[in-house]
Amino acid sequence: MDMHAPKKKLGLKEKYQVMTRGLDWEPSYQKKEDIYPYATYEGIKIHDWDKWEDPFRLTMDAYWKYQAEKERKLYAIIDAYAQSNGHLNVTDARYLNTVKLFLTGVSPLEYMAHRGFAHVGRQFPGAGPRVACLMQSLDEIRHAQTQIHALSNYNKHYNGLHEFRHMHDRVWYLSVPKSFFDDAITAGPFEFMIAIGFSFEYVLTNLLFVPFVSGAAYNGDMGTMTFGFSAQSDEARHMTLGLEVIKFILEQDPDNLPIVQRWIDKWTWRGYRVLTLVAMMMDYMLPKRTMSWKEAWEVYFEENGGALFKDLARYGIKIPKCAETIALEKDHLSHQAWGTFYNYGAAAAFHTWVPEKDEMDWLAAKYPDSFDKYYRPRLEYWREQAAQGKRFYNKTLPMLCQTCQIPMLFTEPGDPTKICYREVDYKGGKYHFCSDHCKEIFEHEPEKYVQSWLPVHQIYQGNCFPEGTDPTAEGFDPLAAVLQYYHLEFGRDNLDFEGSEDQKNFETWRGQATKNV
Amino acid sequence: MAVAAITQYEFAPLDSVEKFHGNQLLYIGWEDHLLFCAPFALPFPPAMRFGDIVTGVLPGCFGYHPDFARIDWAKAEWFKSGKPWQPDFGKSLAENGLGHKDVIRFRTPGLNGIAGSSS
Fold it and tell me: What is the mean pLDDT of residues A278-286?
């Protein structure tokens, strides 16, 4: 083989060519379809991988240099924040519950994204997308690590953060983000890219990261804010990759359009259902609010997403049809979600509470068509009851949606007084759904979703107790056993914020830091 | 439609009735009372009398609500899979035609939740 030695100093474009596509080769003694076994079964047709436009000409050597520089800055700030007891500068100890939700619900997804991109980065027959996916895979593991490091400081002082990884695989509400990502990584490489690379990273990511990062900034949490900013330049790269993927696939063959459209419809809805947790975080959990969920949806999806789909119209892509349902839910989503966590506050690894009067007024101003009419009476009743020592804890397990795994808390589109029930009979079994969209997703691939690990059903099957538990023993307390299985300590990690150890400790420590006691 | 897969893709459902130790699941919702955020999922033996669920189980599920004590069960309207349905309180779940993972709801006319807000 002739070796062609490149010139000593390469231009940027040339260097990119040599260090990415130049490293690829045509196999001679193995068949291409054996090397890339997942490249065709989803029905996507790619005729020429060389048509892939590399959205960012980044090579590995430059990648390490940039990321190392960001790490140095990030860890310097995280250390300074920890050493100066920065946690005592947050607005209110209630804020810490958003951090618990993020660490248990979102950080493990970063790790799964790392695995997912590593997988598709191996499976795509084109060298361009393989390199881009490799870098995103590395970004994602870096995000998981920096989040865990930044938030570990809170674990020294507050409850509910000690077993985030264990909880992610077990706790009932964490099955929502977990099953979302498990669904994506068990799909083929093209669907994964549309699911995570496009629908999540491009269409919905602003609704996840902006609320958490600006929420952190508004509430004095410099640690979280800093990892958010450190991830920001990566996110811009991920968004570009997501967009390039979809354009490339659609330009390759007209037969790809209906498949891609169905994936966009599915994954916009799946992602939106996961964002239910963000909606309630924004409207109920941040002591100092940034904007309402409804406003965020209008800016980041209806305006920005609307412009994106207008741009994609030339390929024949339409705005996902679930957008109409979502528009009807935006006045209700956060209230219904927070009500659910208030109901099941004994089984959550963070604290819940009824909003203060000024917070209810903020909610009424942001949601003039829904809050006072439907949700204030509920919250005020709970507050009155709690004041009489009868804080409501719902002890009966809820019915779950087979697809999104969220309790069936959503109401009929256009009627916030009626729960939305949908069902399907499949091979002699009954399956229930929270919406037309979750039902359609099931109907398209029932073989996949009959395997859903629904926490409520798993508890009733006896699979969510610590090993060696005898549920037939006298005085057996199922809730206590489930919490042990979750590694969730009753009376410390759960229940109302009022009277919690977090509340007392924060008050004491802040007092010591600001007063002469 | 079927899952796109590289080989045969067939798995047993995770929630078939034989996994529930002699019980079957019944989902029960109370219309216009969203103080309870979602319908409930409950495991019962198929031979259990329907009336025993109403008198023995529902108070533990819904009793927190001030409307619950005011329910006149003779006037309650029942629905199965969203369609009007009449249970026989004296008969078992199986005799009432209730199978694994059936969903029923009841409406209590005149009772519309906290301050009439469907809460």
Answer: 97
Domain annotation for chain A: domains and CATH numbers: 59-467+477-514 (1.10.620.20)
DSSP lists the bridge partners of residue A352 as: A496
Inter-chain touch A432–B27, beta carbons under 8 Å: yes
C-alpha to C-alpha distance for A243 and A194, rounded to whole angstroms: 9
Note whether A369 contacts B: Cβ–Cβ < 8 A: no
Q: How far is A456 from chain B, CA to nearest CA, in Å?
A: 8
Residue B13's CB is within 10 A of a number of other CB atoms, namely 19
Specify which residues B104 forms β-bridges with.
Answer: B28, B80
Q: Where are the beta strands (DSSP E) in chain B?
A: 24-30, 40-44, 77-80, 83-85, 102-107
Q: Give the pLDDT of residue A514.
A: 85
Of A408, A433, A435, which to mutate for an interface test with B (greatest number of B Cβ within 10 Å)? Answer: A408
Range of the domain at B79: 26-116
- DSSP letters spanning A140-201: HHHHHHHHHHHHHHHHTTSSS-TTHHHHHTTSGGGHHHHHHHHHHHTS-HHHHIIIIIIIII
Would you say residue B49 lies in a domain? yes
Q: Identify the H or E element spanning B54.
A: none
As a whole number of angstroms, the distance between CA A137 and CA A111 comes to: 9
Chain B CB contacts of A40 under 8 Å are none
| Residue B19, domain member (yes or no) | no
Say if residue A55's pLDDT is above 90.
Answer: no
Q: Please report the ipTM that was assigned to this predicted complex.
A: 0.98
Task: Give residue B98's pLDDT.
Answer: 98
Residue A362 clears pLDDT 70, i.e. is over it = yes
The domain spanning residue B33 has which CATH number? Answer: 3.10.20.560
Residues 37-96 of B with CB under 8 A from A: 37-43, 60-61, 64, 81-82
Model pLDDT for residues A214-248, shown as the tens digit of each residue: 999 999 998 888 888 888 888 888 988 999 999 99
Residue at B8 is within a domain: no
Minimal CA separation from B98 to chain A, in Å: 12
Number of domains into which chain B is organized:
1
Instruction: List CB contacts (< 8 A) between B107 and chain A.
Output: none
pLDDT tens track for A69-86? 999 999 999 999 999 999
Residue linked to tokens 């920096």: A146
Q: pLDDT (tens digit, 0 to 9) for every residue of chain B, 119 residues total?
A: 689 999 999 999 999 999 999 999 999 999 999 999 999 999 999 999 999 999 999 999 999 999 999 999 999 999 999 999 999 999 999 999 999 999 999 999 999 999 999 99
